[in-house]
Each structure stands twice: as C-alpha cells, then as structure tokens.
C-alpha cells in the first residue's frame, strides 16, 4: 500500500500538470486572437545575422530586416553573392557586413562568430537560413553529399547557436530563427537525405525552445519556419500539385 506522502506528491504533480496545461492552452488562445501589431517587436538597431544571405530568401530577409531598421550581417560561402547582398542592403541606407563562411567547417563558424562579435557587436537575431539539396534518389546519393546535406541543414545550426546563444542568455534577450521546411514534417520521394536533415532541424528548434523555457530565459525566443517549395533556384523545375 502506498505511503500517504507518496500519494500526496503524486496528486500534487497531477494538479500542477493540469494547471500548467490549462495555462498553456489559455496562452495559445490569447496569442491566437491578439492582433499581430501587438505581437510584433521593434528591431530597430538590432544586429541580425542571416546565414545563406548571399541569394534567395536569405538575401530577401536581409533586405526586409534592413527596411525595419536592423543592422545586417550576412554569411555565405559564395563571396560574390554575399557582396551583392551587402551592396543592396547598403543601397537602402542600412548598415551591413558580409563574411564568407563555409558552414560545413565548424572551426570556421566559431572564428567568424568571434570576428562578428569584435567587429559588429552582440547578435540579437540569428537566422539559420542556409541550406542545400541534392535531389537524388536515396541509392544514387553519394555518402559525401549526404554528409554535406546534414552539415549545412542541421549541424550548422548547432555551431551557430552555440556561438551566439551565450550572449543572448546573459542578457535574456535574443531570437533564433531556424528555416526548416515542410519536408521536415512530411517525407518526399527523391529527398530522403534532405527530409531527414529538415526533420532534425525541426526537432532541434522544438527541443531548444523547451530548454530555454526550462531555464527561465523567457526573453530568448525561437521560431521555426517551414515553407513548401520556393522559387529560389534550389528547387528549380520542381512542380507541386
């Protein structure tokens, strides 16, 4: 027969769990119906770092953040594309620094992060946008391409977040945005390695968000974005029903 003390703690845990569940449901309902303008935050003067900023949606995000008054840092392995993004951002009257970084190289990521902190300042918003796709059937995908897919689409998230999260935790202010994909929720033919890497990216964001909440760092947020096909070159020629 269970001891009264054990029963008491079990009941207490149950009550706490139910209360927390009710709170989460209420919070979700309030945020759902709260007008967007009350949920938006002012990013004027914030330092925003976008990986894969040299083209596609990475470049578009750099330009959009710049229009909202942010200072832009763009990382890309493509030096020419990166510099073109910087030119366009500066043309808008915003500040921008471009760094050529190979996200497959963990040491290079940490070195570039140190340079950003010294030359630009503390990163307020980190956008993990860089991604690659091979688009080959599973048995046609070489081992090297599979590894590279995970290095860019998944592992790089770990290195960039580790590089910049500490500053965010100290100030309890910051935002990590992970650009994943609907392929991180639904498997696709011919994209086994890509889908697997994006499933991992979705899991990374969810686990990180819960860990931040458990640490009480309510000022550090994460957002996971899961687009479908976007006409940026990565999926050129792909059609969806």
Topology overview:
Blueprint lengths: L3 H30 L2 H4 L7 E5 L4 H12 L3 E6 L2 H13 L4 E5 L5 H14 L5 E4 L14 H29 L2 E6 L12 H23 L5 E6 L16
Parallel strand pairs: 1-2, 1-4, 2-3, 4-5, 5-6
SS-based structural class? alpha/beta
For the largest beta-sheet, the strand count, sense and barrel status come to: 6 strands, parallel
Percent strand: 5-15%
Radius of gyration: 21 Å
Overall mean confidence score, pLDDT: 91
Number of domains: 1
* CATH class category label: Alpha Beta
Under CATH, the topology can be stated as: Rossmann fold
DSSP strand tally = 6
Shape: globular
CATH architectural label: 3-Layer(aba) Sandwich
Widest β-sheet, arrangement of strands: 3-2-1-4-5-6
Q: Name the helicity range.
A: 40-55%
Number of helices: 7
Topology as H/E string? HHEHEHEHEHEHE
Query: Unreliable runs, pLDDT <50, ≥5 residues?
Result: none
Q: Would you identify the CATH H-level superfamily?
A: NAD(P)-binding Rossmann-like Domain
- The rounded distance between the terminal residues' Cα atoms is 60 Å
Can you walk me through this structure?
With 241 residues, the protein is an alpha/beta fold. The chain has one domain (42-225): NAD(P)-binding Rossmann-like Domain (Rossmann fold). It is 52% helix and 13% strand. The protein contains seven helices and six strands, in the order ααβαβαβαβαβαβ. The chain has helices spanning 4-33, 36-39, 56-67, 79-91, 106-119, 143-171, 192-214, and strands at residues 47-51, 71-76, 96-100, 125-128, 174-179, 220-225. Strands 3-2-1-4-5-6 form a six-stranded parallel β-sheet, sandwiched between helices. α3 (56-67) packs parallel to α4 (79-91), α5 (106-119) runs parallel beside α6 (143-171) and α6 packs parallel to α7. The protein is globular, with a radius of gyration of 21 Å. It starts with a helix and ends in a 16-residue tail after the last strand.
């Amino acid at each position: 027969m269970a001891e009264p003390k054990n029963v008491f703690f079990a009941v207490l845990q149950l009550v706490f769990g139910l209360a927390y569940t009710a709170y989460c449901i209420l919070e979700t309902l309030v945020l759902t119906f709260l007008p967007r303008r009350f949920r938006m935050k002012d990013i004027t003067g914030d330092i925003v770092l976008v990986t894969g900023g040299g083209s596609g949606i990475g470049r578009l995000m750099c330009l959009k953040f710049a229009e909202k008054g942010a200072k832009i840092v763009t990382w890309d392995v493509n030096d020419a594309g990166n510099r073109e993004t910087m030119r366009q951002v500066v043309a808008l009257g915003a500040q921008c620094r471009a760094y050529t970084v190979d996200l497959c190289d963990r040491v290079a990521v940490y070195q570039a992060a140190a340079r950003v902190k010294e030359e630009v300042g503390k990163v307020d918003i980190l956008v993990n946008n860089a991604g690659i796709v091979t688009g080959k059937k599973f048995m046609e995908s070489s081992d090297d391409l599979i590894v590279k897919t995970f290095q860019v689409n998944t592992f790089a998230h770990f290195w960039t977040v580790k590089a910049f999260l500490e500053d965010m935790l100290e100030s309890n202010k910051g935002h990590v945005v992970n650009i994943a994909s609907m392929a991180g929720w639904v498997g696709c033919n011919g994209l086994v390695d890509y889908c697997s890497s994006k499933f991992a990216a979705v899991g990374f964001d969810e686990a990180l968000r819960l860990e931040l909440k458990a640490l009480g760092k309510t000022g550090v947020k994460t957002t996971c974005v899961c687009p479908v096909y976007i006409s940026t070159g990565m999926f050129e020629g792909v059609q969806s029903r």
